[in-house]
Amino acid sequence: MKGMEDWSRSDYCGEITKEQEGTEITLMGWVQRRRDHGGVIFTDLRDRFGLVQVVFSPEVNEDTFELADELRKEYVIAVKGKVKARPEAMINEELATGEVEVYASELKILAEAETPPFMIDDEIKTSEELRLKHRYLDLRRNPMQDNIKLRHNVKQAVREYLDDNRFLEVETPMLTKSTPEGARDFLVPSRVNKGKFYALPQSPQLFKQLLMVSGMDRYFQITRCFRDEDLRADRQPEFTQIDIEMSFMNQEDILDMIEGMIEEVFAAADIEEKLDFPQMSYEEAMKRYGTDRPDTRFDMELIDLSEIVADSDFNVFSGTVADGGQVKGINAKGCADFSRGDIDKLTDFVADYGAKGLAWIKVTEDGVESQIAKFLADEEIDAIIDKMSAEAGDLLLFVADNPKVVAASLGNLRLKLGEELDLIPEDEFDFLWVTDFPLLEWDEDEERYISLHHPFTMPKEEDIELLDEDPTAVKSQAYDLVLNGIEIGGGSIRIHDIDLQKKIFELLDMGADEVEEKFGFLLEAFKYGAPPHGGIAFGLDRLVMLLGNLNTIRDVIAFPKTQRATCLLTDAPSEVDEGQLGELALELEDLELD
Amino acid sequence: MKGMEDWSRSDYCGEITKEQEGTEITLMGWVQRRRDHGGVIFTDLRDRFGLVQVVFSPEVNEDTFELADELRKEYVIAVKGKVKARPEAMINEELATGEVEVYASELKILAEAETPPFMIDDEIKTSEELRLKHRYLDLRRNPMQDNIKLRHNVKQAVREYLDDNRFLEVETPMLTKSTPEGARDFLVPSRVNKGKFYALPQSPQLFKQLLMVSGMDRYFQITRCFRDEDLRADRQPEFTQIDIEMSFMNQEDILDMIEGMIEEVFAAADIEEKLDFPQMSYEEAMKRYGTDRPDTRFDMELIDLSEIVADSDFNVFSGTVADGGQVKGINAKGCADFSRGDIDKLTDFVADYGAKGLAWIKVTEDGVESQIAKFLADEEIDAIIDKMSAEAGDLLLFVADNPKVVAASLGNLRLKLGEELDLIPEDEFDFLWVTDFPLLEWDEDEERYISLHHPFTMPKEEDIELLDEDPTAVKSQAYDLVLNGIEIGGGSIRIHDIDLQKKIFELLDMGADEVEEKFGFLLEAFKYGAPPHGGIAFGLDRLVMLLGNLNTIRDVIAFPKTQRATCLLTDAPSEVDEGQLGELALELEDLELD
């Protein structure tokens, strides 16, 4: 195994063009393939920019040809050679460099390679576990290289846009104090201050607000955040956040600014779609889609039928309405041919969201077919059909329950059917700002109000007076950006008034001591002239995943952790010796083996 | 306290020009000063971009004038008003907006402010402790805003340059495995994997090498690193590193690439000096300056006199040489007038570095004056004067000892005198690449070899064969970038060969088990085709500090920690409740109170 000595790479493999015909070049990279044919050795040489065919022929250099016989897949080599145009018949249209090949006059083997545990191909059939264990090999594959490149481009675009708009990048501490984001903190024991702990930040929320108090005016940071959650679905214990805050801007100013950023991000991802950023209130989103992050790429909205059935003889419906509940339905267009079995499966599905049943009406050329038709008056059925714009061939599905259950069950049923019926255009990017969130909700379990966003969220000015009499009626100046039904960012105007902030803490049932200990420094800062301010934060991993049309954020993170929060490559976390713990004044409890 | 309602800022305070005369503008910011004069209230309004004078006159608007009477320092306000040119006599040349003032027609007080604990002025006399406790106020001051802006500009310039050169930004994990940088790791207990710990990275060294194995070709990241050291001098437990790695590049390629980056960084800092990047071997630096990070802004080099005095009758000198030691001197130009007391102080100073004494010769018009002249032959004195280019008025200072003590004592004495004699040009930027470091040194205490850089550093190809017979004679392909005597970056070509890497681990006295546990994944990666690669890392904090001509890295970090590793603003680290520790299966040992 040798170094490159005085060899110097002249070009990247994937960028050799016909215009270079006749020139001597030096390439370095990995052997993707090797074929022997007609007394000549053909290899595909690969680097980050693509492949080129390198030919070893005894007619060019006998020694080089013999050395080339040692080449195997993934060997790292350097070659000097001459660019030749391929004969017309040999042109490979599928390769960017398919018009040329390089006749090697010299070869240096820089590193040998054992057969990798999986092939370095675009499509591979191997477990994610093996990919993560050998991540350095997985990252050699084109799709992964594309993901890393996309992530790079997105970050550069974000920074350039914010820099152009006079934002300042400011770094905030990683070894900090527990933040109030609601999840568990990762703790870091201090050795210098034994018995005390830093927390890794769940977000730089308080620091960015303090930066506004310090007059930074516009702040951003693309930074790592940490949440020690039980890992559900597609979460990582550490994730990257695009964190933004501005002073002296109202909500509309901020949304405008962010829309401009998203447009730059899409341009950087080579997506040339005209983007549109409609707004919808939380209330309307819940009403029409049963969720605060609706996928607006398709219709099938939730239709409220409560008025129509309020006086119905069908007690399941009218009784629910009388008890303060709702009856809502969705129209599964063209699904009148669903079998009883099909519908039973949908019923099981909504049961997971608390629905006690799923009523249905099939609309046919000959009238309706339904288990509940006999309980409903003809006028009621007509009114339902009319309100749901139902036509022959449609299947109408109903849930009668309290608003939460109706929203969850029909909202999720809509998504399920949208997917199964292939109603969702794959290559569309539908944005939606969801606004006017409630400031607080009542938590039954904890018997106190909790913040829907976080305790620093500003109420709508006109609702502030409701804080005393009817807290849950207060709307906030909070906004989420939803893309294709996935929340990619969220933010708010913040409270900058010390008394209002204290009042919110009180409503959240926080005692004066707790407030002082956790947020005393923020309240102290507000004493000295805090500007009106607000901001937003985006989950970078998820954003890049959506831009890349990928299924998991693990594919846009170079070295992700598993669902068990372990790194299969380095074997982190791992045990440490007692001496290290002793320095931290810590002891490990006896652990029962799993 | 109110929000801005429908007010929208039209301009920044510091950017109002005479060209805007007569236009209506809306400004928002902080009241820097307020003066009442001739029935009119003058305020200086401040935002991130500067100050402008805002005038409240009853002739413009009586109500606004009356409201303005409430204004105090650091109130946050919004004003609407008209730009007027100041009369010639009132122009303030020292203010960017000194040609104009704004006559306010409307005023909104956005936030009141108590009197801050220190004034928001460029120069303040207050303890750093108070500044850190109220960092949000400290950051309002112009010098601190300039520092943050400089840091922003440097980071943007670095990224732009590297992006232009086709580097990819890749994020590496923060929750990772113990890295081998030599300092203590900060540990993060895992809750999901009880009894196990992540380590915060001391550097992304291994990950960036793996990224090279993965074919990323050129990587960079500006990332936080962590070292749990006893905090000496100007260190922080968390610091920011510009981390860079490249494949298929030799040392000269890499240095060229980095020099281009530094030039962009200086341009971004508005420093228009022609930069020069000379190289000097470690051996030469130690010989001439007694240190591997010489401050080359001034001369006063260490002169080796060992040959001259080897056979001297003065046994202190000749005996030292005979025992394998050295006699070296520096020429303190024009210091012949130093008193005995002055010289005694210098003797005490070098004693701290192990020197058993400091011999001296004063060169005068009438010959030499010295405590040692009588022991030296005239030819020896003449030869010394000649070799040290001494003239009348110079003071020659000598240390005779082993090379380490000579280097440390005279190297530091040189720096001390350089400073005291005002020999160091303040506004000069002198770079120096120090190269050809020894690969290993023998550690007397641990009785084993240790790496001068780190165990992944590539030996010089021609020295590899010396690894067996004479390990400390092996030079490495390592390089440090020194600026004005401060190391700002360091790196090396890395080993990419599995057998060579194993051999180095053996030399470092690491057992096979330890190697496997700590670096097994790296060695495994090298099996599958690792390209030649190398890189460098810069301490961003220190670099920005030097660019800003500042004395401490705390001034370029928005929220730094104290020497005790605490955050005075948030009071981190802090105690946590037992429940949190219980979830981590940890117990705190009983701590004795300090």
Automatic annotation (TrEMBL), chains A, B:
It catalyses: tRNA(Asx) + L-aspartate + ATP = L-aspartyl-tRNA(Asx) + AMP + diphosphate. It is an enzyme of class 6 (ligase). It is found in: Cytoplasm. Keywords: Aminoacyl-tRNA synthetase, ATP-binding, Cytoplasm, Ligase, Nucleotide-binding, Protein biosynthesis. Signal peptide: none annotated. InterPro entries: Aa-tRNA-synt_II, aa-tRNA-synth_II, aa-tRNA-synth_II/BPL/LPL, Asp-tRNA-ligase_1, Asp-tRNA-ligase_1_N, Asp/Asn-tRNA-synth_IIb, AspRS_core, GAD-like_sf. It holds the Pfam family tRNA_anti-codon. CDD domains: AspRS_core, EcAspRS_like_N. Its EC number is 6.1.1.23. The record marks 37 as: Important for tRNA non-discrimination. Residues 148-560 form the Aminoacyl-transfer RNA synthetases class-II family profile domain. Residues 205-208 are annotated as: Aspartate. L-aspartate binds at residues 181, 227, 453, 494. One of its GO terms (molecular function) is aspartate-tRNA ligase activity. Homodimer. Aspartyl-tRNA synthetase with relaxed tRNA specificity since it is able to aspartylate not only its cognate tRNA(Asp) but also tRNA(Asn). Reaction proceeds in two steps: L-aspartate is first activated by ATP to form Asp-AMP and then transferred to the acceptor end of tRNA(Asp/Asn). This is Aspartate--tRNA(Asp/Asn) ligase. The gene is aspS.
